[in-house]
Design brief:
Blueprint lengths: L7 E3 L4 E2 L2 E2 L4 H11 L5 E3 L4 H7 L7 H11 L13 H8 L5 H18 L21 H4 L8 H14 L1 E5 L10 E5 L15 H4 L16 H8 L4 E5 L12 H10 L2 E7 L25 H9 L5 E6 L9 H4 L2 E4 L7 H10 L54 E10 L1 E3 L3 E10 L5 E10 L11 E10 L4 E9 L5 E2 L5 E3 L2 E8 L5 E10 L3 E3 L8 E6 L4
Parallel strand pairs: 1-4, 6-7, 6-8, 8-9, 9-10, 12-20
Antiparallel strand pairs: 2-3, 5-10, 11-13, 13-16, 14-15, 14-19, 16-22, 17-18, 18-21, 19-20
Helix pairs in contact: 2-3, 3-4, 7-13, 9-13
Amino acid sequence: VREGGARSVMHSYTDTDGVPAAADEDLLTGLLRDTWGFDGTVVADYFAIAFLKTLHGVAADWAGAAGTALHAGVDVELPNVKTFGAPLAEAVADGRIPEALVDRAVRRVLAQKVALGLLDPDWNPVPAALDGADPDDPDALRGRIDLDGPQNRALARTLAEEAVVLLSNDGTLPFERPRRIALIGPNADEPVAVLGCYSFPQHIGVRHPGTPLGIELPTLRETLAAEFPDAEITVARGTGIDDGDLCGLREAVRLAREADVALLVLGDRAGLFGRGTSGEGCDAESLALPGAQQHLLDTLLDLETPVVTVLLAGRPYALGRAVEESAAIVQSFFPGEEGTHAIAGVLSGRVNPSGRLPVGVPRGPGSQPGTYLGARLAHAGAVSNIDPTPAFAFGHGLSYTRFDWNDLAVEVQEAPTDGEFALAFTVRNTGGRSGTEVVQLYLHDPVASVVQPVQRLVGYTRVALEPGEARRLSVTVPADLASFTGRDGRRVVEPGELEVRFAASSADPRLTARVALTGAERHVDHTRRLHATILQEPVAPA
């Protein structure tokens, strides 16, 4: 809201301490508007106002739900008018809901429309590209606007290439001109495997069977054929995403045995409210791979052919033996329309992977994926027989080159609680090809007035380096980044010692500095400094 300049805010479905967000005046008016100064519109998440009656039980009828939401600060009901229609009008007419609440919401909506020019006399909702076309004739409209032009595709490819994460690699990747690739798995030849649940084909298209996707979605089979034109690529599904059908297992094993490498493509089918294995309303009781995919994976791992595991999935899954036994693991989540080109590029080495995990990959199916933010009791220790340590930590990701981090200098080691620390160090590409290192900055607060996470990510930067090239990183860490919510509910910066950790992941600190905050305890608010500053300067060759 503060930095991005958002002009519209959607509240969540959740309740905090028994108060639903749609009914929370302290949140939507007190904090958002009175404290932060937001003057745009607040819109309801779909059906959330009706949920005040049906799910939360804090309203007796539709009018009560509408009045509660208006009083809290909600201006627009979405996706349709249920409570803000006749029930609200009747309640205003008989005096149960003050008309001033309606006026307030209407004023905000109209002010936003004025600012956007939507009430200008010459405004036309039909875009210029459709001038002269009959808006009621789909054939006349089709093809008039290109929503997926070359610039968009190029951007999508860049995003995908920088997002693919190489989790493990025994040296099998990148492939060195393989003659025979066995491409196996339910997502090996599936176009929509790269899309999430709110992509148009998976959100709306699935309701209209037989309708073309309307967008080019090359499968991994197609992009591999283009990436390795001299290789023989054989394909077997093996099993479905979640059908448990293993009738294709024998064919998958045969092809894998005959190949130089088995490329196993597993994961999810994105959907909404039970129509997929991942997506909104598609929750998981276990983080085991859906269906019989783990059985397929383990069967191929039993063979002598090296197995490279690729995951097109909406959540991290426990991979069992594959963590130790797979020749390599590539995690791409849902990489978008150019995702299979990016994956093929990583497999061939055309793309040097630089993606990093935004969530930990669990070691066992009973674990919840972690963002690394656990306090000490959430880590492995003597108080529990369960070790929650992930197989791959938050921030983890490998490269095809090597980076050295050295020459840490702490230029400002002590700072007041309204000051800042200054540090510098060097990152050098010591490998044989260009690559990008992702430097992550964590803070560790060993003693605080309330329990703290063991560490918190407070900054990061991508450092692109040619072989032998080095950069000197100058880092400024404001004391505000050490703030946390204290016992009285206010955010506080406390004096005391801290650790600044420069790391390749939350489990891989490379350089650590001890610093200290001095002076009085200091309370901060939404105007506090939110970012560390990381500047990069080239280092002259030795």
